[in-house]
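Please go through this chain and its backbone structure tokens and walk me through the local backbone shapes. Keep your notes short.
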Amino acid sequence: MRHGRTGWCLALVGLALSGCEMLSTDGPTQPVDIEEVGEGTPVGTVERQVAFPAEEYAKLDKHGSAVVKGRLRYTSSTDGALVGKNETVSIAPATRYSAEAAEAALAGKRIEPADPRAREYTHYAKTNANGYFEATGIPAGVFYVAGSVRLPDGSRSPLILKQIEIGAGQTREIDLSR
């Protein structure tokens, strides 16, 4: 049961990222914890006020020639330094739709899941046994790169989130750690 729930949580992390934007684009953001669990809208979840901006997403490329690579790590006060072994890293475009989700997450609130259409613009990479990942075919733009690490007790680390900007044909290396 725990593995099914973990997979569901990872899928929701990708959905949350499909709708997360920080207002500043001048470098990596601070890690943000986003919690979305269960089916439907859990009690205490903030409803989205911003409608999915289909026109804004329609202007974005879904594929490109850039590469995002790096390493997923988490340092726990009880378990020390851990690498994200066989984890999923999400790479989602930063849009105005996502500012609402980021604001809620920064305030420690849950927000209802992002519109499924946002997933079409999100890229995913799997980490290896040492926590390294590489995603190819990324379009130019501003993105959130995010993931979490399975802790020894089976729970998950907080979401580790960094904002990057990448140009066509570029390779961007990121230290996805917290």
User: Anything to note?
Assistant: Residues 140 and 167 are 4 Å apart (CA to CA).
